[in-house]
Specification:
Helix content is 23%, strand content 27%. The chain contains three helices and eight strands; from the N terminus they run αβββββββαβα. Strands 1-2-3-6-7 form a five-stranded antiparallel beta sheet. It is globular and about 50 Å long.
């Protein structure tokens, strides 16, 4: 039976809190949170979700890059649960690209993010993991980790003219084809 949660929207206090580290692993509570995140994400066109988006202030994200209507050129990867994720940039090079958010529907913006990052997290089995991410998946990871810090992608926009209504974003992309 699916456990689908309402996605917290911009203005919800939980989106502005610094999420708490997960300390008890494994646990029934942790498994329930992860299942709800997975089930909720599966009902969307999103490529990632953070626990604060289901109103749980815990340091858990899921990255699930896949081509969708919202992100047609996204690479395909297995959904990956990451507990207490952290990263550091492998260079100072940032790239601006388009982002949207399940918590801020109808808006897209150009957001600068590091192109290459080194990540560390704990998986569902309690094993410490390490990986190097680049491009789109690195962007999604940084976006989701921002949620754990009480930030949303609009906080990173450098110029308000880089914020578009989704309908205008779609028109601009059609012109680029």
């Amino acid at each position: 039976m699916a456990n689908i949660s309402e996605i917290a929207q911009l203005g919800a206090k939980v989106l502005r809190l610094k999420a708490q580290a997960v300390t008890a692993m494994p646990s029934a509570e942790l498994q329930q949170i992860i299942e709800t995140m997975q089930d909720t994400l599966a009902t969307t066109l999103g490529v990632g979700i953070a626990a604060p988006q289901i109103s749980v202030s815990k340091r858990i994200i899921i990255i699930a890059s896949r081509p969708t209507e919202r992100y047609p050129s996204a690479p395909l990867m297995e959904p990956t649960v990451m507990i207490n994720p952290v990263f550091h940039a492998l260079s100072d090079i940032k790239e601006k690209d388009w982002e949207g958010c399940l918590s801020i529907p109808g808006i897209r913006a150009l957001v600068p993010r590091y192109k290459e990052i080194q990540i560390n997290y704990t998986n569902q089995q309690g094993i410490l993991m390490e990986a190097k991410l680049e491009g789109f998946v690195a962007r999604v990871f940084q976006h989701e980790v921002d949620h754990l810090e009480g930030k949303v992608y609009l906080d990173r926009v450098e110029d308000n003219r880089d914020i578009f209504a989704e309908s205008e974003y779609v028109k601009s992309q059609a012109l680029d084809l």
